Amino acid sequence: MAMLDERRARELLRRSGVRRTAQRVAVLLLLASAYGAEEEPRPQQTHLSSRQIHDQLVAGGADIDPATVYRTVTAFEHAGLLHATATNRAITYGLAVTPHHHAVCTHCGEVTEISPDELGDRLAPLLEVTGYSSADAEVTVHGLCPSCRQILDA
Amino acid sequence: MAMLDERRARELLRRSGVRRTAQRVAVLLLLASAYGAEEEPRPQQTHLSSRQIHDQLVAGGADIDPATVYRTVTAFEHAGLLHATATNRAITYGLAVTPHHHAVCTHCGEVTEISPDELGDRLAPLLEVTGYSSADAEVTVHGLCPSCRQILDA
DNA sequence: TTCGCATTTGCGAATATTTCGCAAAAACGC
DNA sequence: GCGTTTTTGCGAAATATTCGCAAATGCGAA
After folding, report:
1. C9 C1' – A54 CA distance, angstroms?
2. How do strand A101-105 and strand A138-143 relate by DSSP bridges?
3. I want to staple A82 with a disulfide (CB 3.0 to 4.6 A). Which of A33, A93, B48, B143 is the partner?
4. Of A92, A115, A107, residue with least CA distance to A45
């Protein structure tokens, strides 16, 4: 189900210059599994807050300290493994293994994934303007999702 | 210097269906002034955290409670006046009077503004994919800014 | 493998941050 | 102006985040 198995997770960490520890692998796998299959009408939560990460890991039987989660997401973000998004009033983290993109509704907070395929080369012109390289850039669209717009228009 | 004077701020609040109070006008003006002129080689900070907003207002002689700032940014964000971005480890807020766009460096946290003009119609095709309307959508690019990429490549 | 060094973890505690309830104050429509 | 509704400040509680340090772990070299 997950796009990332234990083996890949390990390699990813090594390549990213991050020491491989049980805790870090766990965080990585959890975030990977959050991506899961995408068959739901409304995508499930792909981004998790530090607290959610900790809670879910503990619920899954892992033994990890909250402080470690904080340190881990910080390290991961610096290594470019994660991507932080402001959702409602919390910072949530999503896997950034492959550049991918999001649309975040400013009203309901829902995060919709946009695959690079869907985006095609519509991104390149936009990046040109910024000087960022498309290799490691991600785009987040903030706005009203279609359903919230309907509600608010009423 | 600011793109927003007292008069405009008031009108903006009214149109947004937000009650006009001294505190809210102050927050709005502060964020507007954060935009300032854009002549610096490195853009100054255009997005502020709740704490920064409070500190700067107090430093400027205003009398406002931290709790009010929290409530205000929440209200503003809902009204579509602000836009939240995850920067480093904090949520920061920037004015969203006119849709505008950002590039956030995941390494140094710097936020670069992209004007709608610069973007031209490069945005529309991207929004098509999401179903979001271009009227109220903003784009944030996350990645390595050119200078951080150089540093990290070394 | 085993050893040694550098990094990471957990823990406990110190700090920050954010939310809440409530009474007083301020805004808005009439 | 007047009454109603919303917002504010305050104090306190609930959460969240960071820190220091000793023990544990990972990783490269021998």
Report:
1. 15
2. parallel
3. A93
4. A92
d(CA B96, CA B73): 12
B/e letters for A39-75, b = 16+ CB within 10 Å, e = fewer, are eeeeeebbbbbbebbbebbeeeebebeeebbeebbbb
Out of A129, A141, A142, closest to residue B119 by CB: A129
Pairing of β A90-95 and β A111-114: unpaired
For residues A118 and B63, what is the distance between their CA atoms, to the nearest angstrom?
Answer: 49
B31's torsion region: left (phi>0), alpha (psi -120 to 50) or beta? Answer: alpha
pLDDT, tens only, B84-139: 888 878 999 988 766 677 787 766 667 777 777 777 777 777 777 777 876 667 78
Q: Nearest-CA distance from A92 to chain B in Å?
A: 9
* B50 CB-to-strand C distance under 7 Å: yes
Query: The pTM is what?
Result: 0.76
Q: Please state, in angstroms and as integers, the Cα–Cα distance from residue A31 to each residue in A11, A37, A114, following that order.
A: 16, 13, 17
CB-CB neighbours of B116 under 10 Å: 14
Calculate Rg over the CA atoms of chain B: 16
Question: Pairing mode, if any, of strands B101-105 and B138-143?
Answer: parallel
Å from the B14 CA to the D12 C1': 34
Count other Cβ atoms within 10 Å, centred on residue B153. 7
DSSP A104-146: EETTT--EEEE-HHHHTTSSHHHHHHHT--GGG-EEEEEE--H
Query: 10 Å Cβ neighbour count for B100?
Result: 19
